[in-house]
Amino acid sequence: MDMSTIFISEFITSQALETLKARHTVIYQPDAYQDPKQMTDSLIAAQAWIVRNLTKVSKELVEGAKQLKVVGRLGVGLENIDLNACAERGIRVIPATGANAESVAEYVLGTAMALMRSYREATTETLAGKWPRPTYSKCHEISGKTIGIIGFGSIGRVVAEKALALGLRCIAYDPIIKESSITIKGGDVAMRTLTEVLASSHIVSLHLPLLPETKRP
After folding, report:
1. Under 8 Å CB-to-CB from 3, ≥6 apart: which residues?
2. I need a surface site. Which of 12, 55, 178, 179 has the fewest CB within 10 A?
3. In terms of Cα–Cα distance, which of 143, 135, 103, 98 is closest to 119?
4. What is the pTM of this model?
5. What is the CATH number of domain 101-206?
6. pLDDT greater than 90 at residue 163
7. Containing H/E element for 194?
8. pLDDT tens across 76-123, in order?
9. Domain 5-95 shares a fold with domain 101-206
10. Is the dihedral of CA 65, 69, 73, 76 positive or negative?
11. Are 81 and 73 in contact (CB under 8 A)?
């Protein structure tokens, strides 16, 4: 798709933007996601559309974008994109699978440690000039605990790799995976039923797409 016109309706980094500009005509409007009329006008000449999670790729916008061939999602969730409308027009939808796996994994484990060690509460108390030592002596180390990962795709596996490196035991549930265990960097992850994961884990981390099957009633 040499020298195509790419419409970008949300923020991207300057480095990524310059890379695209070197090869294509780029319409960069990082706040356009807030204005359907602006997006409609900008999509008239676009063959490609790059979005994050704030842009609503609606049926109306897709139908009006007569030259559109592909929608690129900077992320992995597709709940903001009308996939049926894109399919009807033959428009490819390409998520950046795995691109945010490291970031999400770091956030998951950092948050787990903060919760188990009561960092937020301890910081608030310390700033107030207090130190209720008996309370914080009951906090838990993360090493030796069990983390249950629900959804063992690219992100779930990176979470497991980092968790194993920190000394956690990892188990996982994924209805698509039929093997009893999966070998990753750092060790093996036992595949269990959802009930077993919930019953056996000190920490539970969800890494699921938003689908009718995964949405809470």
Report:
1. 23, 24, 25
2. 178
3. 135
4. 0.74
5. 3.40.50.720
6. yes
7. helix 194-200
8. 889 999 999 999 999 999 999 888 899 999 999 999 999 998 888 888
9. yes
10. positive
11. yes
Q: Tell me which residue has tokens 């609503």.
A: 56
**Kind plus residue range of the DSSP H or E element containing 26:** strand 25-28
- On the question of pLDDT at 27 being above 70, the answer is yes
Token pair recorded at residue 120: 């937020």
State residue 2's pLDDT score. 60
Domain positions in the chain: 5-95, 101-206
Q: Does position 67 have pLDDT exceeding 90, yes or no?
A: yes
The predicted model gives 51-60 an average pLDDT of 97
Residue 164 contacts residue 134 (beta carbons within 8 Å): no
For residues 117-137, average pLDDT: 84
Q: Is the dihedral of CA 155, 156, 160, 166 positive or negative?
A: positive
Q: Are 32 and 52 in contact (CB under 8 A)?
A: no
pLDDT in tens, 187-209: 999 999 999 999 999 999 999 88
Backbone angles phi, psi at 185, to 5 degrees: -60, 120
Residue entry with tokens 């390409």: 94
Q: How far apart are CA 49 and CA 61, in angstroms?
A: 11
What residue spans of 71-130 are helical by DSSP H?
83-89, 101-116, 119-127
Helix (H) or strand (E) holding 41: helix 36-43
